[in-house]
Design brief:
Helix content is 26%, strand content 24%. The protein is α+β, with helices and mostly antiparallel strands. The strands form three sheets. A six-stranded antiparallel β-sheet has the order 5-4-3-2-1-7, covered by helices on one side. A three-stranded antiparallel β-sheet has the order 6-10-11, sandwiched between helices. Strands 8-9 form a two-stranded antiparallel sheet. A hairpin with a 2-residue loop joins β3 and β4. The N and C termini lie far apart (107 Å).
Amino acid sequence: MNRARGFTLVELLVAMAVLMLLLVILVGVYGGIDRTVAQVNARREAGQTARVALEWIGRDLERMRGRVPGDLWSVTTGTSTLKPAATSGPQLQIVTSSSAILSGSCAPLPHAAFWQMASDAGSGRGMALVGYFVRWIQDGSTKRPSLCRLYVSGTSADYQGLYASGTNWVSNTLLDNNAPGSSPSYKGWFADNVLSIWFRALDANGNPITTNAASSPFPGGAFDSRQGYSFVGSNGTCQVQGPALPASMEVAVVVVDAARLQGNSQTYTPAAGLGSDPAAFWDDIQKFMADPSIPRNIRDGLRVYSSRIPLRYAQ
């Protein structure tokens, strides 16, 4: 007589073990795919932020102007009797951590650039002041860095005040009036999760500019176009008397995806001295990105994007 034979207990246990092993493998594969997709999306997010920022900065840099006839410098009087000298007032100024140009309520601004631009395609009228810098703001339970864009119209009283005597024409008062750092929605906010921004001026040969027209080094990596600049040409050292814009500007932004900053309570800015030598531009950026004071999780997500922008009105 034939008897129907079922599975033994051992066979059932083996089958269950194999099934569990397969499930563990599938879960691991799915988790790996999920993490890969999240990483790709995070990089895409950071890249999109950087591309938009660099496009805007590039457009503003292309319209950079020096002092030009017809500049709307005095809206209040409507006259030119108090028109400042060509070497005064806003041109282009790069601020680095070692130059210590800004302080007080606007600190820390370790790296920034401010310049005068034509707001109507360079006709010489409708001038404005623009600038870019990073500020850390409290966003709920998270402290995150935001790229800020300063814009001061030529018709503004604040713009008229830029022509006061002295070297540092960008002041804490001007920033507080036009880009206060009081909340995530403050005027001047431009993009989230940009940890640092870096600028350097380049000559016609694409080399970093380090000295003014008198062949004196710019202090701490700063650049002031009102002082002109020196560079080495085919016939030796050339002096371009101020005010003079460089041939081009190089700008870089260091960004991270939002998820890595979630719950962050600290501020991470370039150490003092980084940016003080324009020739060490990329080395300094890499040093900042490898700073051990930045948590490993955030460091692993840092990405740097850059662009070189020829200046339309360069001398």
